[in-house]
C-alpha cells in the first residue's frame, strides 16, 4: 500500500517526470471541462468515448498497485503528485501552486472552472473545504509540525464564484502536537469563506519519531 516513501531519485529525474506528467494532467483537465460543456452531436460523443477508453487502456498497460503516496527525495523535497489539491499527476486537483512566505503565510492564486461547480456558476462548498484543508494543512506543516486535519471549521460568508480566486492561510497558535491554522478563500471582491483548523501529528508518527530519537522537533 502506498504511504510515505523515501526515494533515491535525482533532481533532474524529478524535473524530467514533472515536464512529462504535468502536461498530460493538464490535457486530462481540459478533457473533463470539454466533457462537461460539449454540445457536439451524439455520434461524436460516442466516438470520443471510444477514443478515451483506448487511451485509458494504453495508460493502464503498466500501473502502480495503489495510489501514488508521498515520496521524499534525497534533497529533502517531497512529491505528493496524487494529492487531490496540489497533485502534479492528479487531474482532479485544480491544481493549486502554494507559495510559502518567511512569515509563515501560505497563499495561492488559482482558477476554478466548470468542474468545481455546486450551485449554478458557484464553487461547490465541499471544493472550498478541500482547498482550505490543504492550505491550512500546508501552513501548519511549514511551521515545522505537519499533521492530519483533526477539526476543520468553515464559515461560508457569501457565495464563491467560479473563476480566479485566492486562498491564504497562516498559523494561529501551536499547542504541543497541535497546530491551529486559520485562512480564507477570496474573490476579487474579498473574502468568501473563512476557515480554522487544528492539525495534529498522529500518534503513530509521534511514536515513530520517538523511536528514531528525534522527537524534539515536534514537541
Ligand atoms: C510543508 C509541509 C507539507 C505538509 C502538507 C500537508 C498538507 C495536508 C493537508 C491535508 C490534510 C488532510 O486532509 S488529513 C486527512 C483528513 N484527516 C484525517 O483523516 C484524520 C483522521 N483522524 C486521525 O487520524 C486522528 O484522530 C488524529 C490524528 C486527528 C488524532 O489522533 P491521535 O494522534 O491518536 O490523537 P490523541 O493522541 O487521542 O490526541 C492527541 C491530542 O489531539 C486532540 N484531538 C484528537 N482528535 C482531535 C480532533 N479530531 N479534533 C481536535 N482535537 C483532537 C486530543 O484531545 C489530544 O489533545 P491533548 O489532550 O493533547 O490536548
TrEMBL record:
One of its GO terms (biological process) is fatty acid metabolic process. It is a peripheral membrane protein. Its EC number is 3.1.2.2. It comes from the Bacteria. It is found in: Cell projection, Ruffle membrane; Cytoplasm; Membrane. GO terms for molecular function: hydrolase activity. It is an enzyme of class 3 (hydrolase). Its main location: membrane. It catalyses: hexadecanoyl-CoA + H2O = hexadecanoate + CoA + H(+); (9Z)-octadecenoyl-CoA + H2O = (9Z)-octadecenoate + CoA + H(+); (5Z,8Z,11Z,14Z)-eicosatetraenoyl-CoA + H2O = (5Z,8Z,11Z,14Z)-eicosatetraenoate + CoA + H(+); dodecanoyl-CoA + H2O = dodecanoate + CoA + H(+). Residues 121-176 form the Thioesterase domain. Keywords: Apoptosis, Cell membrane, Cell projection, Cytoplasm, Fatty acid metabolism, Hydrolase, Lipid metabolism, Membrane, Transit peptide. GO terms for cellular component: cytoplasm; membrane. Belongs to the THEM4/THEM5 thioesterase family. PANTHER family: ACYL-COENZYME A THIOESTERASE THEM4. This is Acyl-coenzyme A thioesterase THEM4. It comes from Nocardioides luti.
Amino acid at each position: 500500500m502506498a504511504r510515505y516513501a523515501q526515494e533515491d531519485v535525482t533532481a533532474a529525474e524529478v524535473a524530467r517526470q514533472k515536464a512529462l506528467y504535468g502536461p498530460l494532467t493538464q490535457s486530462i483537465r481540459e478533457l473533463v471541462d470539454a466533457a462537461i460543456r460539449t454540445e457536439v452531436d451524439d455520434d461524436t460523443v460516442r466516438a470520443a468515448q471510444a477514443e478515451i477508453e483506448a487511451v485509458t487502456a494504453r495508460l493502464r498497460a503498466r500501473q502502480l498497485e495503489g495510489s501514488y503516496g508521498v515520496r521524499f527525495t534525497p534533497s529533502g523535497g517531497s512529491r505528493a503528485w496524487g494529492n487531490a489539491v496540489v497533485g502534479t499527476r492528479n487531474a482532479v486537483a485544480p491544481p493549486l501552486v502554494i507559495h510559502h512566505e518567511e512569515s509563515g503565510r501560505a497563499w495561492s492564486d488559482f482558477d476554478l472552472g466548470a468542474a468545481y461547480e455546486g450551485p449554478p456558476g458557484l464553487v461547490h462548498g465541499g471544493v472550498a473545504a478541500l482547498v482550505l484543508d490543504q492550505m491550512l494543512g500546508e501552513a501548519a506543516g511549514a511551521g515545522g509540525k505537519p499533521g492530519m486535519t483533526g477539526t476543520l471549521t468553515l464559515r461560508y460568508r457569501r457565495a464563491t464564484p467560479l473563476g480566479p480566486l485566492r486562498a491564504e492561510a497562516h498559523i494561529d497558535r501551536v499547542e504541543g502536537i497541535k497546530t491551529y491554522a486559520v485562512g480564507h478563500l477570496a474573490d476579487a471582491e474579498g473574502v468568501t469563506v473563512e476557515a480554522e483548523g487544528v492539525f495534529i501529528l498522529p500518534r503513530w508518527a509521534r511514536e515513530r519519531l520517538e523511536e528514531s530519537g528525534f522527537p524534539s522537533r515536534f514537541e
